[in-house]
Design a protein that fits this description.
Layout: E1 8-11, E2 15-20, H1 36-47, E3 57-58, E4 67-73, H2 76-87, E5 92-99, E6 107-117, E7 122-126, E8 134-145, E9 150-156, H3 163-170, E10 194-202, E11 209-213, H4 220-225
Parallel strand pairs: 4-10
Antiparallel strand pairs: 1-2, 2-4, 3-4, 5-9, 5-10, 6-7, 6-8, 8-9, 10-11
Length: 230
């Protein structure tokens, strides 16, 4: 059985939430690497001894170098309802980011217009009137600092491509390990220090609120801040 059995944060007949490791891909891509979705299907098939094709629907994605909570639907009804919630911004998402520089303010709401460059797989802060630009909005709050790094909690209000990475870079606070957005060196495992920490949503069938918190990855940088993340 895939090791995700040890990383399940919530499971019932309709919903499965897994704590994704840094560098895992959520869904299959051109690399051909085994994805988290593949492992979820294998887990369900083996645990419940299901014959034939197993259903597991991906509700939302996070970037490969990012860790944290990812939600899957175990039924088509749950997938349909959860997908609508994500589209309507009825998912509350809070991330943790370890950044290089202390931000100017200890708490601030950032609003930028972002434009995705498909060729570079990167988003850029642009003028509001630029064609294709989309409003990106988040709030960050400084939680703790070490000698070299700073831990931010981020609440997302929109879900743009590489939004947190691009917006923090734009204020001079690139995420540790994120070469694409201005950090000076990579992390050894290819990850970036961005973690999908908390997620809250209404259960698609039971209609009760679900609150999930995903433990941060192992590693020296996260270890320093661990006491602030429990």
């Amino acid at each position: 059985m895939p090791d995700i059995a040890q990383r399940i944060l919530f499971e019932d007949n309709h919903v499965l939430v897994v704590n994704k490791l840094p560098s895992e891909i959520v869904q299959g891509d051109k690399t051909g690497d085994v994805s988290l979705l593949d492992d979820v299907k294998s887990y369900i098939k083996i645990k419940y001894q299901k014959p034939g094709e197993v259903f597991a629907g991906l509700v939302h994605r996070i970037d490969r170098p990012v860790s944290g909570a990812v939600v899957f639907a175990k039924t088509s009804k749950a997938l349909s309802r959860l997908t609508i919630m994500v589209k309507d911004r009825d998912f509350a998402k809070n991330y943790l980011a370890i950044v290089k520089n202390r931000p100017r303010l200890d708490e601030e709401t950032l609003e930028n217009f972002l434009l995705k460059n498909e060729d570079k797989n990167k988003s850029f802060v642009v003028r509001p009137d630029q064609k294709g630009a989309k409003l990106a909005r988040l709030n960050y709050r400084l939680i703790a600092s070490s000698d070299n790094f700073h831990l931010l909690e981020i609440e997302l209000f929109t879900g743009r491509h590489h939004q947190i990475r691009a917006q923090l870079s734009a204020i001079g606070c690139p995420i540790k390990g994120d070469l694409k957005y201005g950090f000076d060196r990579s992390n050894e495992d290819g990850s970036i220090c961005l973690h999908a920490w908390k997620i809250s949503f209404e259960h698609p069938v039971k209609k009760e609120m679900i609150h999930i918190q995903a433990p941060v990855p192992k590693g020296n940088t996260w270890k320093f801040f661990e006491s602030f993340t429990t």
